[in-house]
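Technical note accompanying the year-one report. For the benefit of new consortium partners, we illustrate the data format agreed upon in the data management plan: each record pairs a sequence with a structure-token string. No post-processing was applied to the example shown here.
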Amino acid sequence: MVGLGELLIKTSSRGTIRGGSQEGFRPEMTGLAEDGGGYSSDPRLAELYDHVIPYQERGDVTFYVDAAREGGGPVLELGCGTGRILLPTARAGVEIVGIDLSETMLAACRRKLALEPVEVQARATLHLDDMRSFDLGSKFKLVTTPFRSFQHLLMVEEQLACLERVHRHLMPGGSLILDIFNPSIRAFTQTNYGEIVAEEPEFSLPDGTHCVRRHRILGRDHFQQITQVELLYDLMHPDGTEERLVQAFPMRHLFRYEAEHLLVRAGFEIKALYADYQMNPFGTQDPGELIFIARRR
């Protein structure tokens, strides 16, 4: 994984490549990141997660809770993290199982779950597991992949392995919600690799530490459709010391028809495609989201 201050630089027979691919170049960037989102680099990243303002303001929680209520459960969430969606689902009276590849994220979720009423705790189950190979021995009415967790699968073989696992764990007629972003062609034309951009609102931690998060794109491989991302957490501790935590990970983007073909190939029937969590149809937002509702065939 590319470190702080580096650009994604690869060498081929055609010369040095910065921030992307050239014709004839096949990158070596393959496989799922160690924990899917770069959280293993520092356990404090999981502690910061629930305080990040854009995460708090995402409009997807109601969407997922309503979908879980409609289906009646049980629900399986792939990449449940700290429980941002899992806990409200359990509070809504729906049985839910969450898996995640990050032990630090699951530990944060367990701490929060322990503070919930006993009846809420009884509805939620957590597993440290891999979305490419999980085998829970249970069937679900709904499987969800909130907030782009599927996009940490970099290779088609991994994506199909995940979808096969989902298909196997769904009840007949059960549904999958595949939640990925709609790629912005305009963004792909930008070449400001390594430049720190998009400063977010400052937030504070319970111990008085202040944090500002920024991000930068280290590079894009347009052939493999992979972007190398760094999230930078600049901390100011109560004693005045400053520190930067770096969360680095690759992310795979998928286009609409590519995702549709994957779903059909894996045995799903596409029932709906939304551009946002208010269920507006695809094409009404630019670029919007790609939120697929797919039923097990």
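Partners are asked to follow this layout when depositing records. The chain has a mean pLDDT of 89.
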